[in-house]
Amino acid sequence: MNNPFEVIEARLSSIENLILDLKHLPKESAPIKNSEQLLTVQDAAHFLNLTVPTIYSKVSKGELPVMKRSKRLYFSSTELMEYLKEGRKMSNSEIEQQAETYLSNNKKGLK
Question: Where is this chain compositionally biased, Polar residues type (predicted)?
Answer without folding.
Answer: 92-111
